[in-house]
User: What shape does this take?
Amino acid sequence: MRLLLAALGLLAIFCSVSCHKGACLERMDHKKSPSEEPDMPECQLYSNASCCYRNFTEQLQSPVSKVDNMFWDKCGNISHRCEKFMKRIECFYQCSPYASRWKNPNYPVGLLHAPLCLSFCDDWFEACKDDLTCAKNWLADFEWNYDGNHCKNSCIPYSKMYANGTDLCQSMWGHSFTVASSECRCLRLDERDKAVMKYLKPDDSSSSSSSSSSSSSSQSSEEKSCKRVMAALQKEKEEEAKEQEKESELLENE
Ligand SMILES: *[C@@H]1O[C@H](CO)[C@@H](O)[C@H](O)[C@H]1NC(C)=O
Ligand SMILES: *[C@@H]1O[C@H](CO)[C@@H](O)[C@H](O)[C@H]1NC(C)=O
Ligand SMILES: *[C@@H]1O[C@H](CO)[C@@H](O)[C@H](O)[C@H]1NC(C)=O
Ligand SMILES: *[C@@H]1O[C@H](CO)[C@@H](O)[C@H](O)[C@H]1NC(C)=O
Assistant: This one.
């Protein structure tokens, strides 16, 4: 009986991943379903299965000024390190085949509570803290007219606008993102996400506010297997790096 339940559980987890494959957010400029998009100048992380077309990513080439119809540099040029994080967010939203897992039910062109790792949010805050912004919520706090978005308030450093990484992640793009309570079952918008996807459940995103989930024991077992798999991946990566080092040493000695 236990085995059967475990098998069903696995099936459910499997389905929650694969049954969501093949969908994109319902933006006019997105594909219906993700497909290969070689030679993207940016967002290469998603080039095997992309919801955006190559031409979208052209505007994300440094220095980024305007993305779609929104100027990012209303308070002056963006620092290189801050821009890198902004791009990771934008690439995820526009190109990731996973993004539609967190499609906003009331606004299907947008995200709702995609669960970011706290470490990602803190790194983002650190990278942007000296950059300037005039809007806390970039979806709501600009004034819009025919020539794009305009500041309603004065430009201040991110470190004044946002209290910390959590505040930044949960404010800048409205309700699009939330900080996950788990440091394993969360997105970092890098290559790790692919492996972590199967541990993310649709209700993970709301877990940061409380641990109200009905099955906390199954949650913690998922947390454990997530940690186990991520540790194994990390080890694999380190060993690969070591191998490469050895190989290049050998080459040098030849
Ligand atoms: C794309 O797929 C190839 C072949 O499966 C793989 O080697 C490569 O790492 C993938 N690239 C990314 C960015 O996932
Ligand atoms: C981008 O490319 C896609 C597919 O090739 C095309 O349908 C779309 O119109 C292009 N968008 C722009 C802004 O050129
Ligand atoms: C902002 O960047 C542009 C393009 O790289 C550059 O021409 C301009 O001088 C920069 N402005 C400031 C104030 O640094
Ligand atoms: C981040 O700032 C928010 C809002 O001020 C605060 O409630 C929260 O405790 C802070 N979190 C951390 C980890 O400092």
About this structure: Helices lie at 2-18, 54-57, 80-95, 118-128, 158-161, 165-171, 192-196, 216-253. Residues 59 and 68 are 8 Å apart (CA to CA).
